[in-house]
Amino acid sequence: MTEGSTVNTDHLHSYAKLGEEGYRHDRVNHNVGRYVSDTGAHVQTIEGFWSQLKRSINGTHIHVSGKHLWKYAKEAEYRFNRRNRPEAMLPELLSTFQPLPSQFD
Fold first, then answer.
1. How many other CB atoms are there within 10 angstroms of residue 8's CB atom?
2. Degrees to nearest 5, angle at CA 45 with 15 and 39
3. Residues 32, 53: one domain?
4. Which range of residues forms the domain containing residue 81?
C-alpha cells in the first residue's frame, strides 16, 4: 500500500493512526449501526472476502499452517474476484498451464 492511499476501516482502535502515517483514512462505526460513512466508505467487501476465506478453510481444507496461509488466501482472492462469472474460472485456470512436451517429438 502506498502513502496517500485511501484506507476504509471500522472503528477498531488499532487503525486510529493511519491518517498520521500518510494514508487517507475513512471509518465506519458499526457500534452505532452505521455501515456506510458519509463519503460512501464501507468495509462489506473485505468482510465478504474474509468470510469466504474462512468458509474455504473450515469446509474444504480443515486446517492450514501459517507457512502456507498465503496460498489459501491467494486461492480465495482468485475465487472472490471471479465470483460473478464462475463459468470462466476453470477455462482461465487451465489456460495458465503449458502443455508437457511429447515423448514422441
1. 20
2. 65
3. no
4. 44-94
Q: Are residues 37 and 48 in the same domain?
A: no
CB atoms within 10 A of CB 76: 19
For residues 49 and 87, state if they share a domain.
yes
Q: Are 23 and 6 in contact (CB under 8 A)?
A: yes
Do 13 and 49 have their domain in common? no
73 contacts: CB under 8 Å, gap ≥ 6: 53
Indicate if 64 and 89 belong to the same structural domain: yes
pLDDT per residue, tens digit, the chain (105 aa), is 788 899 999 999 999 999 899 999 999 999 999 999 999 999 999 999 999 888 888 888 777 889 988 998 998 898 889 889 989 989 988 888 877 777 665
Number of domains, the chain: 2
Task: Give the pairing type, strands 6-9 and 24-27.
Answer: parallel
Going by the DSSP 8-state scheme, the letter that residue 8 receives in this structure is E
pTM of the full structure: 0.65
